[in-house]
Every structure is written in C-alpha cells, then in structure tokens.
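Hi there, hope your week has been kind to you so far. Please have a think about how the structure follows from the sequence. I've dropped the whole record in just underneath, so have a look:

_____
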Amino acid sequence: MELEKVLEQHFGYTSFRPGQKEVIEQIVNGKDVIALLPTGMGKSLCYQLPGYIFNKPVLIISPLLSLMQDQVDQIKQLKEKRVVALNSFLNASQKKGTIQHLHQYRFIFISPEMLLQQQVQQKLISMELSLIVVDEAHCISQWGFDFRPDYLRIGEVTAKGNRPPILALSATATNKVLGDIEFYLKMNNPYTFIHSVDRPNIHIGRKMFQNREEKLDWILEHVIETEGPGIIYTQSRSKTESISERLLQMGISTAAYHGGKDPLDRQFIQQQFIDGSLEWIVATNAFGMGVHKQNVRQIIHESIPSNVANYMQEIGRAGRDGRDALAMLLFADGDDEFAKFVGMDDFPNEVHVDLYIEYRRKDELPSTMIQNGEISETAYRVLDYWMHQFHPNEVKQQLYAMKNDKMKAVEEVLQLIQTKSCMREKLVHYFGQTLMEKPSNCCECCGLEYKDIIRKREQSDYKEPTVSWRRRLENILLGFS
C-alpha cells in the first residue's frame, strides 16, 4: 500500500514530515516502535494513519484529561466521528455505555488508571485492537516512579492475549528512559527512531540573582517590557497565584494554573491561553502537556526544574511556529535546595514502609495510613506499588535509590546553570546526542542578544482573537466539536 495515497486521502498532505513514514512503515509491518519526535513534528499522525490502514480500533494511553480532550477535538475536526475519550468526564451511565460499545470506535483514548479497571480490561481483551499507543511515553519513567505508579503497570495489561504492535511516543528521552519504556511496556525488540532534540529557534538564556525578591522584580519588569505570549514556571502553587496577581495589577492578562485548581477551571484557563484571551500563564509543571499553541514566544523558569528532561519538555512548548523564542532559566541562592525539598516533600520513606508492615500485621488495611494523616495519598500510591513488587527491605533500598536519583537530577540542572560552556550543547549531550550546528544567538554562554530575539511590548503585534474560548470549550466537553 502506498502510504502517501492514504496520507492525502485522509489528511490532505502529499508528503510526510521527517520520521513519520519510517515509523508508520514499521508499525504496518507489525513491529513495536519507540519514536522520539520533537513537539510540532506530527507525532499523532504516526497512529492516526495506521488507524485507517488497519481499520480496527487503536488504543491510545494518554496522561492528562486536557491532552485527551484536545486530541479528540483535533481528530473530530478531521471529520472522524468514531473517536472517544474514556475518562472521568463521563458519568457512570456514559462510562458503562462507552465501554459496552468500545469496539465500534476507531480511536480510543484512555488514562493508565482507567486502563487498569477490571471492566475495561475485560472489554479490551474481547476486542481485536490494531495498535496500542503510549503517548508522552517518558511519563513511564518520570511519573511512574514518582506519583503515578500505574504507568509501570501498563505492560502487565497490554501483554494479555495476542497483543498488536505497541507505539511509544515522546519528544525527549534519555537512554535510561528509553530502557524504562522498553522494559515496562514489555516491548519486543522495538524499532527506535530518534530525531534531534535540538530546537534551533529556541534561544537559551539564564540569569543569576542574590535573592528571590530580586528575581521577582526582574520577572515583573521583563514581562511588562517584552512581548508574549509566555509561560512562567514555578514549583510552588502559592507562587503561581502571587506572581499572576502582581502581573494582573500591572495590566497584564494572566492567570495562575496548578493541580489544586478545579479541573474545569484548568480547562477554561488553558483554552483562554490557547485562544489568546490570556497573554501569560504562571504555572507549576502541571501545565503545558498537550497545549497546542503555536506562537508562545517566551518560557521563564522562576524556579529551577526538578530535572533536565522536564526542563527540555517545558521549553519545547515555545516557538512551535518556527519563529524565534526565548527560554529564560533564573536562579537565586538556595533554589537548588528548595528544589530538592519539593522533590522529596510528597515521597514515601523507610518509616512508611514499617508502618505499612505494622498495619498488615494487625490485619488492617495499610491505606488507613492516609485517613490517619500518616502519609499523603500520592506517597501511598508509590509505596503500595513497591510493597507489591519487593520484600520490605528491598522496598527501602528502592526508595533510597529513587531519593538519590532525585537529588542527582537537581544537581544536573545546577550544572546547566553553572556551566561556562555552551548550554545548548550540554542539553543535547544530556540526551545522548551531538549538536551538529549552533544557531546565531545560541545561548547565554555563546553571547545572547535578547533584543534580537524578543521584541519590546509596544512593537508586539499580539492581538486578542474574537473566537469565544468558552463556547468552544463547552462544545468540546459536550461532544459537539
């Protein structure tokens, strides 16, 4: 079958982007595939086109509700009606009806947690799937060990029965993450396509400050003087609120975004940003994945990210239109220690292992630890997963190793901040790649002229669109898109 004909018939394109055809050919031939393609390179086509070739359901395991809804919306815009998201937006009756008719859909989006539900598994085993897709597959390694251990169980479910090929998609992954993806998805000698992680149009800056107040003053002055749209990342929910409030007082259309907000509020804020009603978002790392906004001009990290991979994912949300964009990494004394504290704040330890054993000994449910305020729900999920995998002493060793990995990851970010050599080169090397060519205005260490990258606010052609973001989002949620 000539793939270009299918491409033009269903998607209106006459040629593939780099990597797409190679990946699709391997899938059509029945191979498991790991594909690392930069944001904006059309990863979704790698499973959508096979969906039309095989003409059997494609199961897409996706990490976030907002990402699922966005993907469903995009597919519906291609006039495909047989697409559904099986998630918590459905009430009990809708969920039951969707599962009952699941075999009638061409594209099925689902979260790892929903995938593990018994009724869902029973239905999927009875179906003949053409392809299983794990989108944002780096989450297996970055989230599975941290706060969503169900990611580590995906392979246990997908291995049941006579499974179809598995496609793991991501924009970035280190060699360790690639190994985790292959191992936990139980992939069979996968074909791996790796595109360069470098985004030449994203220029990397950094600034050092003596204290956090000085850093905040710089942010406020910089945002008021330069063009957006942009995202300011910080590690504290309270900081997202306080910084966005200060910007609002200065006349900047902005909003705070974090995991503590109501899911529908988060959807509205995200849609406002996409449609241009908001120029800036101040967010924790809960924001960004699946946000398809082409003209993000700036990414500012108010606090250092927990690891280099997260940093690369977050700055990759800028400049999808191919125009120049600026990624600013800010650092004040003590930021690295705060990052380590945040990384360990909601994580189980040896005391929790002993408590878990004690509850079992008393024939009580270990989950009672949550009700008694002895552990957070997130930390318990991680603990419970490992307590079902290993002997308690081995669990303690595992948690200790994971803690060390978190500390090491922060130190790696600190090395990027402190380096006197090319920051871009160091970033690309972190992912096991070689930088072939440096763009002009490469990074702070190579001499970066900010005025050549970001225009002054009065020169900006930023305009608020006339599209009703609220009406569009309501249509998405009600299924009328």
